[in-house]
């Protein structure tokens, strides 16, 4: 977070940082810091939300390939926001959140239903393939909605890449309640996710209400995905990489995995934002591009592992 505030197209001094924190942004450097502070907070919140959502989705589906981007949840949220902008006149962040959460929830249910068809039910590879195919279809629908609307095309294309450059305290304040509820729901279901990892029958034998536990955890993940996507656009692969890395530190206990995933996800998105500002000075590379460049090889590596069948 300190690097995010101080490093960018224009490096700043400590005096500039203190002046901006004190509410005085008269100079150019102070104004740059004042803009970077909400941007940094948004990167932290979005990264934490995506990291926790990925860990929860992997626990709910017992699928090591589960990720808000790979399973199409982020793209479903994006389509809902774009449709709201184009046909219902949505302009405020609070209305974006409701549309994004609705789109994320419907997409999650649809992907799981498609991935459950055929023999063997919802296997990891079937869910990943269903999510990838549905993501491609939803991306095409977004293009079909945006192309005839020149008034929306520029803003939607920039937002669709996924980034935190437009972060503001107002946008953060409007999505913060949804993120808080999502984090709370996910953390409360940590013990249930540990039971689900043993298998549905054994979890039920231990007294776990399997359907309720799975639905509650999925609701928390959808809230986190929808709220973060509403303000940053779809940022892919964070929810895939972070839980796998954190399991090397914490093991499979979700009571530890979820908090660690929040911290690691926040660090990853913030670092990607800083990197995107540094390597393309004075221009910027959006966070979604950086995470995709890192996450795509990681995804291929996970697919090639023998443990891809189940957690």
TrEMBL record:
<dbReference type="InterPro" id="IPR037294">
    <property type="entry name" value="ABC_BtuC-like"/>
</dbReference>
<keyword id="KW-1003">Cell membrane</keyword>
<feature type="transmembrane region" description="Helical">
    <location>
        <begin position="211"/>
        <end position="236"/>
    </location>
</feature>
<feature type="transmembrane region" description="Helical">
    <location>
        <begin position="37"/>
        <end position="57"/>
    </location>
</feature>
<dbReference type="Pfam" id="PF01032">
    <property type="entry name" value="FecCD"/>
</dbReference>
<keyword id="KW-0812">Transmembrane</keyword>
<feature type="transmembrane region" description="Helical">
    <location>
        <begin position="127"/>
        <end position="147"/>
    </location>
</feature>
<keyword id="KW-0472">Membrane</keyword>
<feature type="transmembrane region" description="Helical">
    <location>
        <begin position="96"/>
        <end position="115"/>
    </location>
</feature>
<feature type="transmembrane region" description="Helical">
    <location>
        <begin position="167"/>
        <end position="190"/>
    </location>
</feature>
<feature type="transmembrane region" description="Helical">
    <location>
        <begin position="287"/>
        <end position="304"/>
    </location>
</feature>
<comment type="similarity">
    <text>Belongs to the binding-protein-dependent transport system permease family. FecCD subfamily.</text>
</comment>
<feature type="transmembrane region" description="Helical">
    <location>
        <begin position="69"/>
        <end position="90"/>
    </location>
</feature>
<protein>
    <submittedName>
        <fullName>Iron ABC transporter permease</fullName>
    </submittedName>
</protein>
<keyword id="KW-0813">Transport</keyword>
<dbReference type="InterPro" id="IPR000522">
    <property type="entry name" value="ABC_transptr_permease_BtuC"/>
</dbReference>
<keyword id="KW-1133">Transmembrane helix</keyword>
<feature type="transmembrane region" description="Helical">
    <location>
        <begin position="256"/>
        <end position="275"/>
    </location>
</feature>
């Amino acid at each position: 977070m300190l690097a995010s505030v101080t490093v960018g197209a224009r490096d700043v001094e400590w005096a500039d940082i203190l002046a901006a924190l004190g509410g005085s942004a008269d100079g150019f450097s102070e104004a740059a810091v004042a803009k970077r502070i909400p941007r940094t907070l948004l990167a932290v919140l979005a990264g934490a939300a995506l990291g926790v959502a990925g860990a929860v989705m992997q626990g709910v589906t017992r699928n090591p390939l589960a990720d808000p981007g790979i399973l199409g949840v982020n793209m479903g949220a994006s389509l809902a926001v774009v449709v709201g902008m184009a046909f219902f006149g949505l302009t405020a962040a609070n209305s974006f959140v409701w549309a994004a959460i609705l789109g994320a929830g419907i997409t999650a249910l649809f992907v799981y239903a498609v991935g459950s068809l055929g023999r063997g039910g919802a296997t990891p590879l079937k869910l990943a393939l269903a999510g990838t195919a549905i993501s491609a279809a939803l991306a095409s629908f977004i293009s079909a909605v945006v192309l005839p609307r020149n008034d929306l095309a520029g803003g939607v294309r920039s937002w669709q890449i996924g980034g935190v450059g437009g972060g503001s305290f107002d946008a953060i304040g409007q999505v913060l309640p949804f993120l808080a509820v999502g984090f709370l729901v996910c953390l409360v279901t940590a013990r249930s996710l540990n039971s689900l990892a043993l298998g549905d029958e054994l979890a039920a034998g231990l007294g776990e209400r399997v359907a309720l536990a799975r639905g509650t955890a999925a609701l928390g993940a959808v809230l986190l995905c929808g709220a973060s996507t509403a303000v940053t656009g779809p940022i892919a692969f964070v929810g895939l990489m972070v839980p796998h890395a954190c399991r090397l530190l914490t093991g499979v206990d979700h009571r530890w995995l979820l908090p660690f995933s929040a911290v690691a996800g926040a660090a990853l998105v913030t670092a990607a934002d800083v990197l995107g500002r540094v390597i393309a000075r004075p221009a910027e590379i959006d966070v979604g591009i950086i995470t995709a460049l890192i996450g795509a090889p990681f995804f291929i590596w996970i697919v090639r592992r023998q443990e891809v069948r189940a957690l």
